[in-house]
Design brief:
elongated, 13 strands, alpha/beta, formyl-coa transferase, domain 3, Rossmann fold, 35% helix, 3-stranded antiparallel sheet
Length: 371
């Protein structure tokens, strides 16, 4: 079958009434794959339009990276007439993405989030909150870094035996956005069978806790409270950054066969046969002793040459590149993960379908830009 110009979600109508990052990112994922996305904004606009510099056409690069393939409709939902217009749009929508406060819904005489699918039975309602609407943290506002802290992610990130450090990428917001997009697709599949929409309850907190792998499961089975591990892996050795004569290399050796091949390249052929290091379990238990031997061996190699040699032999080895190098790399360009045209500059689309490819059809809209 030849690829078409119609995305996999062509014909799907989505109302994106969310702000900042998680919800808009979910909407963009659906929009990249053909859905029609109408972004509802207040007269002041989504606040992340101001998250800069840099700015492009009056909006931040931050905003533009998660709001392509959308139209912008300005509504003051605090006003009855605009709110009725919003509700009218939901009559023909397939998906609603929103992150309204529960107190805001109640000001609109909406008792709870279930109201939307009761009022619009075929609607898929993706509700994104910080912690959910109920429970001990229910209704609390959610911000990426704060949720990282409350979900334990800061406690396991940072230098070995050092202070906790926020994960630099807004990983909670982005993962929540992906979970919301996935939830929409799952609910749409269920609607194909039942004819009914449903509420998808997606929280930053749930997404963050689900990402605490393998630390959470390790604790649940061992009772040992984990702390920051630096670049080490809690369950795999060797898995770390090693200094060489030239550039540092990240090495990720996930099985005994790879370990044996790595040792051959480092002239440490005796280690795989040593009971202290012959299995991953043994290597984890004797981590410090093994790391001392590996660090000494890596000091004498040229990382710029050694890294590609290891990769060519099936051993994961990666130089630590900065964002400029990544943005200008031949492979990122080959994979269309960096897009720079006169009309649009930003990250590419990671989901590549053979028959119904994604596309950029609409550039990030100016506030109120419907066409």
């Amino acid at each position: 079958m030849q690829p078409t110009n119609i995305g996999a979600l062509d014909g799907l109508k989505v109302i994106d009434a969310a702000r900042v990052l998680a919800g808009p990112f979910a909407g963009q994922i659906l929009g990249d794959h053909g859905a029609e996305i109408v972004k509802i904004e207040s007269p002041e606009g989504d606040e992340c339009r101001g998250f800069g510099p840099p700015f492009v056409n009056g909006s931040s690069a931050y905003f533009n990276a998660v709001n392509r393939n959308k139209r912008s409709v300005v509504l003051d939902l605090g006003e009855q007439n605009d709110r009725e217009q919003f509700f009218k749009m939901l009559e023909t929508a397939d998906v609603l993405i929103e992150n309204f406060k529960l107190s805001t819904l109640r000001k609109w005489q909406i008792p709870d989030a279930k109201w939307f699918t009761q009022q619009y039975p075929r609607l898929i309602h993706c509700r994104i909150t910080g912690f959910g609407d109920d429970g001990p943290y229910g209704g609390l506002p959610g911000y990426d870094a704060a949720v990282q802290a409350m979900a334990g992610l800061l406690s396991i990130n940072g230098d070995l035996d050092g202070d906790p450090v926020r994960v630099g990428v807004p990983v909670v917001d982005l993962t929540t956005g992906m979970n919301a997009a996935l939830a929409a697709l799952l609910a749409l599949q269920a609607r194909n069978r039942t004819g009914r929409g449903q509420l998808a309850d997606i929280s930053l907190y749930d997404s963050a806790v689900s990402m605490a792998h393998p630390f959470l499961t390790n604790y649940l089975h061992s009772g040992v409270i984990p702390g920051p591990t630096g670049n080490r892996h809690a369950n795999i050795v060797p898995y770390n950054v090693y200094k060489t004569r030239t550039v540092p290399l990240f090495i990720a050796v996930a099985n005994d066969r790879m370990f044996s091949k790595l040792c051959n390249h480092l002239n440490l052929q005796e280690l795989p046969n040593d009971p202290l290091f012959s299995t991953n379990r043994a290597r984890v238990e004797n981590r410090d002793l093994l790391e001392a031997k590996l660090n000494k061996a890596f000091e004498s190699v040229d990382g710029e040459v050694f890294g590609p040699t290891l990769l060519d032999n099936g051993i994961p080895a990666a130089p630590i590149l900065n964002i400029e190098t990544v943005a200008n790399s031949a492979h990122a360009r080959h994979r269309n993960m960096v897009i720079q045209t006169q009309e649009y500059t930003g990250p590419g689309i990671p989901i590549k379908l053979s028959d119904t490819p994604a596309s950029i059809r609409h550039f990030p809209p100016r506030l109120g830009e419907k066409e």
